[in-house]
Design brief:
Order of helices and strands: EHEHEH
Distance between the termini: 26 Å
Number of helices: 3
Number of strands: 3
Amino acid sequence: MTRLGYQVPNFTYPGVGSDGLFEAVAAQAVEAEESGFDTVLVMDHFYQLPMLGAPDNAMIECYTLLAALSQRTSRVGSDPASRARGTPCTMRSTPRHPLVASPS
């Protein structure tokens, strides 16, 4: 079975301010789920990567974002037992408390 993931590498959208940022990302996650994607991946960085944008571009904390996205989707979220789950692209455990960084 082929599985597809949808990656959200950038949280900067033309005409979308910080007050509408979550709604823009949530709309992408819902559309990805409805289109058959199995996973939604988000960035786990404090600053935007240089090849994707300026360091002061918007960046949402990944675990908070995944938890919030799980409220808008039925299969894509932070629940590791679900068929399709949201996940950070890579997990940076160095700045994380051990309880946050440990697998569930």
